[in-house]
Amino acid sequence: MATALQQQLAQIAKKSTDQLDLKAQRAQHSKSLLFDPRVAANQTFETIYQICAEAFQELCLLDARFAPFAANLFSEQSKSEERINLTKKENEELDQIIDSFLGLVSSRLLLRPGLKAVEWLVRRFRVHEYNTESLVLTFLPYHANPVFPTMLSILPKTLPPTLKFLQPYISSLSCPPSQALVYAAVNNPSFFTAFNTYVVRTSNLGHHSVMLLQFWAGVMTPTINGMLDAAMSGRADVRSQRQEDLLLRLVPVLQQTLRIKNVPELFLGSCMIICVLVSKTQLDDKVLDSLMDAVSRGWTSQTVDQGLSTVAIIAEERQSLKFTRPVTKALLKVPALETRILELQTKQHTGRLLTGLAMTSLGEVATSEAFDLIENAVTSHIPTLPQKAAIIQLLLSAVSDLQASSEAVASQERLGRIFSALCQSSSTLPLVQAEAARLDLSLESLEVQLQISLDPSETLALPSVDADTEMMDEPVTTQADQLDEALSSLPQNLSKDYSFVANADVSPFNAFARAFLILLQQNKDLDQLLGKPVLHGADALSSPTYLTFLARLWTSSYPIVARVSALRSATALLHAHSSTTIDMQALTPFVLVALADASEAVRKVAAGLLIAITTLYHPDAAKGKVNDSIKSWAAQSIYAAASPKSSLTGPSAYKVLSDALVPSLEECVLDPSQIARVLASALNGPTQTQPGHPSAASVELKSTLRTSFASWLCEHAAEVPLASVKLRLLSFLSPVGKAASTGRVQTLVPSLQNWIQSDLQTRSASCASAHVDVASVDKAYVDCLTSRTSEELTCLRTLASGELGQSASLSTLAIQRFRALWPTMKPIAQTSAAAFLLDLALDDQSDDISEARQSEATDLLRQVSMPTEVLSSLLESVPSIAQMEDKPPASKRRRTSRSELAKSQSINVADLHNVIRRLTLVLELIEGSHPERHPELLKSLFHVLSELQHYRMQLGSNLVYLQQLVIGCLFSIVDSLKQNPAVKVDRSVLRADLIVECVRTSTNAQIHNAALLLISSLASWAPDLVLHSVMPIFTFMSNTLLRQSDDYSAHVIDQTVSRVVPPLVA
């Protein structure tokens, strides 16, 4: 056991600077990042300073922020400065300067000048001993680089507790993995604190780098995750204490990092850590509020979207819906906040964000923008029903608190508009009624206070029979009078073949629909209307009038009770004739539309109606087949007297119903979108249905039946004049593949053409009566077109170019459809489409529609992935200079000399400019398509480079941008070919002389550099093709580049010499 004296002597030896131990001093002096210890030991400080000062000057040229360090760390005086001779205060000041320099040089440690500069700090100021922590943290982002073990080799034997985790790696001089750093940050509080302090200090000084901040975020995010996992183990009181300790260590760091402005990487890293923190642990609202406040105060225009996403995540974890006032003010200052929230909703939940913002802004900052936000919140689909109920409760309280003032009048108008929107929605009206009842309010009292009408029946009212009825002198005062008036105003003479779905005329239908609704409101027997002879109910299976009235009713935007009653009436009629054998396929499309209704009650009754339709086929009990001669209901009269013959026979219709539709009705009742999936599965067949798809099982229709079924759907979609039904049937057809090709070509394409060519006012009126937007029908039509047939692609082209329907919206829809179909097109179709879109993008018309079309086409060309065949075709579509020359007649050519002929050949300048525009766009497309993936374009690009010389002479312009594009693409291809020798390319197409010509004839330095780099790359890949051009290259370099002093020119010279000279010598 050591004596007390020995222990004291050991402590003194530990702190000794070895001033008298020459061997120890020599060992200390040999510590170096650059040199072998034996070499470093013999170097003088003068020698070291010369090497490092020169590197420091290079750093100053790269970044002027290094210049102040020339007065201290890299001054002449520093050569003789010894830290052991400095006072404690002077050493502390020196430490601050060293820390500042290390933070700034951190991003350049992999550059030779950066490492040399740090070498001076190691050799002169012994930072590896006095500033060990700062040095290690500076090198830590490069822990996987060979420079890191070199740095470890010079560290002292005894490390501070912060860095104890590096001891095993110092022994083996190996790189620590990322997991080791994360483990150290989780389990070593001193390292965790030191690392965060270093990042905050460096960022505050403005010495941060993107690499440092990305490394920090990459380490801290799994670190926080690991800390939270560790804190969740043990007893409840232990877990609570651990979480509190973690928050005390982490929250101050986050608040500091979020306060640093104009460092977006630091802000994004902090947001990542916050998201992990709030999603993995239950935090008090006060903590969440402080984090939310810090994020909202720290975001900038660059980081506002990421900050908004983080605030939304925090809001989802809070107990309270209302936000603090500072957070609300910060959110309301965000430009286009509503649009940003809607975009964010596609990626994450934003319901509590929008709800909290609406609730807080109502009470705290009730501005016009706040009311707009509240209105959008309660009418949008983002908040849940309970969240909307909370907003409505506050709105009702705000109505009760209205006072007689100018501001209150404005608020009253805003609140009135909000409540009108709420009462017009079937989803929010019950919420208003429930919350009002809970507060002992009635809709009538709200009407008095807000001075508006909130009667729910008005929002569901049917249009009147005609204008005369609307303007009656004496209003109907009793329900009986109202019903009598509605029944007496019905049309009395409808032919037996009259169909309510044969046209979009609303007058006769509205009269019957109004009477139907009044009977429902008064709880009267519907037979008072449905039993009238004018509807031919007794002959309903031979006349379309009765059932088409009900079908139009249940497919329109009437109250749920009306749609359900119409379906029940139709089902009851079919049950009453259950013994009759009849094919009701003409009614089936309307039932399919009802199965896609948003109301489950409607879908449930529609399922029953479809089963009733199926039972009327009465298949043979033994064979399960339907008679081929089965009678069809309304086959020739449902849409018009000359309705086309159906593509679906009676037995085929039964097969579709019994095998594909009826077995899936239970799922269709539960999900309104299921019927579309069932139809797509049935029509596409099991091979095209994804495994595990809800409708993938038990749907096995023959290909001929699928084709007939698809054609039948196309016929109904094309023929039906009701916009709402047409829209739904088209949406059913959109995901259908090959089976619908015949129907699309023969039916849908002509129908689309007729629809677009029809009068816009007629289309608008038809859609307005069905509460459907014209643009929605246009889009549904276009979405049905595919790339399977030339007729469909031709139709898309006519729409995109404006030949069919001169409309910007139609052109946009067609071009967007091209974008969606592009991956499914065959190369030949892609080539044709690309040529068409290129012509469209280069259209020289200047009206608004044409400009919008050009922009859409250009964006599409830039965004899609083009194969080599398409790119090659686009290049070949650019005319050469020879093709553009206006050549004289043959007789004159024989009488003129060659020089005279050259003079006589002229080129239209306007045409040449158009060619340049075309070539520019094509080259930009090639550049954006990764030219290294298309080595086959090598020949065409050299041809373009040759043509550019002719274009230059004709235009008198250097065409610098085009030359850069061509040379850049060539360089990418050649560089790729060097790395992939297995790729076979015809080297005879290489034209080094053209590249040399570019160098010699251009005055642009960028062209010079790019061309020389291309020559260098060619020399190392195909040296025999470059040797004959060596002399012009070196002559040019001696006259131009050698006289320039910039780094890039030096790089070009180095590459050229190192790659061209070896083949020449060999």
Automatic annotation (TrEMBL):
<dbReference type="InterPro" id="IPR040191">
    <property type="entry name" value="UTP10"/>
</dbReference>
<dbReference type="GO" id="GO:0030686">
    <property type="term" value="C:90S preribosome"/>
</dbReference>
<keyword id="KW-0539">Nucleus</keyword>
<feature type="region of interest" description="Disordered">
    <location>
        <begin position="882"/>
        <end position="902"/>
    </location>
</feature>
<dbReference type="InterPro" id="IPR011989">
    <property type="entry name" value="ARM-like"/>
</dbReference>
<comment type="similarity">
    <text>Belongs to the HEATR1/UTP10 family.</text>
</comment>
<keyword id="KW-0698">rRNA processing</keyword>
<dbReference type="GO" id="GO:0032040">
    <property type="term" value="C:small-subunit processome"/>
</dbReference>
<keyword id="KW-0687">Ribonucleoprotein</keyword>
<dbReference type="InterPro" id="IPR022125">
    <property type="entry name" value="U3snoRNP10_N"/>
</dbReference>
<dbReference type="GO" id="GO:0000462">
    <property type="term" value="P:maturation of SSU-rRNA from tricistronic rRNA transcript (SSU-rRNA, 5.8S rRNA, LSU-rRNA)"/>
</dbReference>
<comment type="function">
    <text>Involved in nucleolar processing of pre-18S ribosomal RNA.</text>
</comment>
<dbReference type="InterPro" id="IPR016024">
    <property type="entry name" value="ARM-type_fold"/>
</dbReference>
<dbReference type="Pfam" id="PF12397">
    <property type="entry name" value="U3snoRNP10"/>
</dbReference>
<dbReference type="GO" id="GO:0034455">
    <property type="term" value="C:t-UTP complex"/>
</dbReference>
<protein>
    <recommendedName>
        <fullName>U3 small nucleolar RNA-associated protein 10</fullName>
    </recommendedName>
</protein>
<dbReference type="GO" id="GO:0045943">
    <property type="term" value="P:positive regulation of transcription by RNA polymerase I"/>
</dbReference>
<dbReference type="GO" id="GO:0030515">
    <property type="term" value="F:snoRNA binding"/>
</dbReference>
<keyword id="KW-0690">Ribosome biogenesis</keyword>
<feature type="domain" description="U3 small nucleolar RNA-associated protein 10 N-terminal">
    <location>
        <begin position="246"/>
        <end position="358"/>
    </location>
</feature>
<comment type="subunit">
    <text>Component of the ribosomal small subunit (SSU) processome.</text>
</comment>
